[in-house]
Amino acid sequence: MPEIDGTPRYRSTLSIDEPTWGPGRVKLRYQWLRGNTAISGATSTSYKVAAADIDHSLRIRVTGTRKGFATATVDAAPVGPVAPGKLSASDPEITGTARVGNTLTADVDPWGPGEVTLAWQWYRGDEKIAKATKRSYKLAAADHGQLIKVRVVGTAKHFAKTTRYSEQTGKVAPGKLGPTPDPAYNGIAQVGQKVTALPREWGPGEVKLSYQWFREGKEKDEKIESATKASHVFTPADLGKRLRVRVTGSKTGYQKVARYSGWTVEVSAGTLTPAKPVITGLAVKGTTLTAQPGTWAPDGVTFTYRWYSDGVLNTRALGDSYLLGQTDVGHTITVRVKGELTGYQTVILESAPTDTVLSRERGR
Known about the structure:
This protein has 364 residues and is an all-beta fold.
């Protein structure tokens, strides 16, 4: 009985060794069969497996004839069922730098035979990455610190589906922010005034920005602990110093980046918002006048008072009240109020004069 050599697979070749029959010279004929059906044209000792053979068994029938002898037929043991063809496949390779924000690309040598459809799937470790089904993949924040690989699946008509995996990348490095511009600022460098950081546009996408203001020091910059917002109101501690702001950009999966603005000019003393003082009380000997400084800004202004009789300073009157005496009769009284606050320019304002001081009230 002949024995079939070869793998029963689409596009492979099956064959038998040509048998030796006797006695004498015997004429041999061959016929390959798909199941129990003869395959047209398949009449040699070898046969290339066709698509129609898939899922069927194959065998060969040998028929011997010789004049004067009865015809003899022998069938080889069947092989199969015939499997789909086997694709010629290669493993994919990943090109690109494994860093968040970068794009990786899968390359693969051509598959065959003929036209093969390739499908891609990217993995984070052993977990499929949703919607990452193209040859290229842009690394996301979730990939930071992970190992990335790609799977390719090849399909072709009459061939078995074939799967290949790439080697893993190294651990994905954090991304690099860009752009990361140096910040500017807007405002007047004066105590009590507000300065605002202008960070400009950072990227890629939405970047969280944080702020820290610094006061220039002799050996190193001094961090202003409470100044951690985009705006800062200059305080008395800033007087005579230069300030700048540090803007730090952060985004999940990316390296933090810090950028500094230039220095402001030296911070000058602030300007108080004063009110004109008013004197209350009757301009009569023996009564007490009181100075009302009004409402000044900002809060915390301290006041000192100087009283004048027709422009002549009374060196003994130092408070906000003044007892009129005999020497004041016939004169007008004014008060000068000096407002002081650390970090601000001192302001001195004078009240309007009182009426002429009388020795006693009229009508008495």
